[in-house]
Amino acid sequence: MSIKAPLRLSEAQKSVVMDGLLVTAVLILLSLLLNLLIRPIAGQFGNSGLLIYALVALAVATYCLDRSLTLPRDVTRVWHGVIGGLVGWFACSLSDYLGEKALTGQTALLWLIFTGMVVTVLWRRVLPLGGRFFGMVFLMSWAARFFLDAQEMLANWHPIFVRTYLFSGYLALFGVLVSAVWLFLRARQRLARMWTAIWLWFFLLIVVSVFMGQLI
Question: For residues 69 and 128, is the Cβ–Cβ distance under 8 A?
Fold first, then answer.
């Protein structure tokens, strides 16, 4: 009677799970958790509670940014960068709950473009690996939020934008499929898989926000 050996994953398969799917899952769950805490804190403590919440998130983002620039291992720096970028964006996005929509209003596009230009210029010359992931996650979070909010505002002006809002969800779903295929079949290195995981998270974020409720 033969005993089958336990199924063992190859190093590449382990990397797909740990450096790809896990990064995406952590970012999605962290986005969900951070948003779920908003209403209980606002209901219990009002704007003062939200302000403290934002300051705590900002402190966490600053710590993660520092670690993403100073730790010796690339993968560890990337982890701190992606988490710090998401938490940092969330801390800034709470300003929309405290006052005017400075990050998604009419003038927000200029700030988004300007911030993107600064990150692009610093990308190769100044920003180390962890800082690049931090900046990328921050900008992608902001872009997703602006893209969705802008379409919701335009939907109040003309019904056609209701359809474009839904279409953007289906388009993002296609992006999820492309990113997943690239992660499993084309990404060969750990950092390449982590970059792909960021894009997979970005498209999933839009899909969930369009069809289930805003998550960013």
Answer: yes
